[in-house]
Amino acid sequence: MASETLRGRGRRGGQLTRAPQIQELGLIDAVIYTKRSEPGAKNRFVYYPDTLNRLPSERPSLADLFALWRTGILAGAFGMLKEPMVPKRPAAMTDETVGSFLARRVDKRIADNLVSAVFHGIYAGDIWQLSAKTLLGLAWQLEGRYGSALGGFFRMQSEDQRPHQVTIVHPVDLQVAKAMNEEIDLDPHFAKSLKDASVFTFKDGQQTLVRALQSAVEAKGNVEIRTQAPIQSFKALEGGDMGVEIVSGDEASPSTQSFDLAISTLRNNDITPYVTVMTVNLYYPNPTLLPVQGFGYLIPQSIPFEQNPERALGVIFDSSAIKGQDTVEGTKITVMMGGHWWDGWESYPSQEEGLQMAKRVVERHIGITDEPTAHLVNLSRDCIPQYTLGYSDRLKNFAEGITDEFKGRLRVVGSQFNGVGVNDCITGAWNVARGLREEGWKGRSCGLDKIIDSREWIVVPASEMAYVKREGLDKRGDGGL
Ligand SMILES: C=Cc1c2[nH]c(c1C)Cc1[nH]c(c(CCC(=O)O)c1C)Cc1[nH]c(c(C)c1CCC(=O)O)Cc1[nH]c(c(C)c1C=C)C2
């Protein structure tokens, strides 16, 4: 019943690194797509102040914008016009929260009513804690270089002699984009389907990918997959040997092994806090319960407690967002609750409490009073890392520390380092794996080359950040995390 989706266009590597994996594992026929033109892709809503507002699509009409304006959700949007005139941040400012950046440069109301909802829908996080330098990387860099994000964008275009649109990227991101173009070869039909899709998933859910990967790896014969063997500790080998000594397994009877090189997805609690999210899947036999067709809706931080005492973050309209997964008709939705709202909680709602809370959310917000005939409640503890203020400095310290200690024999991958999307993590893993080829595994990289590399960001044609090898598959290089 769970309804995870994969983004057609993710940040950084987009689907690029995942697509060849799907192709190589022979899973292309198991993929189902939601096309960009379908309501499930186009219609994303924000609940404000007590109604669903459709977020502007790629090309919003004047009527769309006017409808949004009337609800008040766009209050403060005129701040965009004065943004080029807002003084540049002081030189001593090394980071700022997303909320503070927007309040300073545009208007606090836009941050609270609109942007906080979008950040709920990605990080389940609080814009007043998350880092603008990391998560609004492009805008942060443009302000740093030109004194303004919006004005800077246009100045960057006009100052550049090249005929096409340019963007600003970190040299390491450019290098990765070039490598993808050189090394990734996609079936043109598959590439076209992905290009036309907003999200894609598998008929039997995302587990399809994990299971196929497991089978493929096991079939190689030289790989052993061990589960239920938590890492207890690890350290660099001593006595002149290069490598990592790892203690794993049961605390009572751990085993110690040495490796020439280890790739770790373990988290480090000094770099980011995490948030806990509860997801409640609800199924109703009545297929016409949704007030609108679309992907779902998000709830901004400005919604008062009385309208959202359950601390819901958003609701996905699964049966509208993804077609082709279900064997029976009906309405399927997922209520997502918690995230930063539950920071510091020592205990969380039980499964039964979660179910009741989710039912109250959809009754209050979208008038669904039917009784669901099936449900699934899942509490994901500490599931999404929060790139809070100062994250990039903490990550840099960490990267320098492990490089010093392990001299390249420990490399790291995962959502704490690469981004919260599945695509981000696969891109990170792809890049680390590439770096091991030939003599690469003997090098000093710890897998976090970008954060260690202090070169200036560079202006390049936006097309250089796109996958152009086959059918123009889209890859956005927005310079974020
Ligand atoms: C309500 C909570 C959440 C919803 N999804 C997530 C949460 C916490 C988790 C999530 N959403 C996105 C990612 C990144 C995945 C990737 O890039 O591969 C994660 C971990 C993507 C995303 N979802 C929404 C947006 C605007 C984005 C950014 C990328 C994009 O534009 O595609 C919107 C959104 N998320 C949720 C809803 C209900 C919703 C919009 C109505 C649920």
From TrEMBL:
Enzymatic reactions: protoporphyrinogen IX + 3 O2 = protoporphyrin IX + 3 H2O2
Gene Ontology BP, a term: protoporphyrinogen IX biosynthetic process
Pathway the protein contributes to: Porphyrin-containing compound metabolism; protoporphyrin-IX biosynthesis; protoporphyrin-IX from protoporphyrinogen-IX: step 1/1
Record has Chaperone as a keyword: no
Enzyme class: oxidoreductase
Molecular functions per Gene Ontology: oxygen-dependent protoporphyrinogen oxidase activity
Keywords attached to this entry: FAD, Flavoprotein, Heme biosynthesis, Oxidoreductase, Porphyrin biosynthesis
Cofactor note: Binds 1 FAD per subunit.
Statement: the UniProt record of this protein carries the keyword Flavoprotein: yes
Needed co-factor(s): FAD
Name by which UniProt lists this protein: Protoporphyrinogen oxidase
EC number: 1.3.3.4
Cellular component annotations (GO), alphabetically ordered: mitochondrial inner membrane
Chief location bin: mitochondrion
Entry's family note: Belongs to the protoporphyrinogen/coproporphyrinogen oxidase family. Protoporphyrinogen oxidase subfamily.
Domain Amine oxidase: start-end pairs: 23-434
Chain's role: Catalyzes the 6-electron oxidation of protoporphyrinogen-IX to form protoporphyrin-IX.
Subcellular location: Mitochondrion inner membrane
Gene3D superfamilies assigned to the protein according to its UniProt record, in alphabetical order: FAD/NAD(P)-binding domain (3.50.50.60)
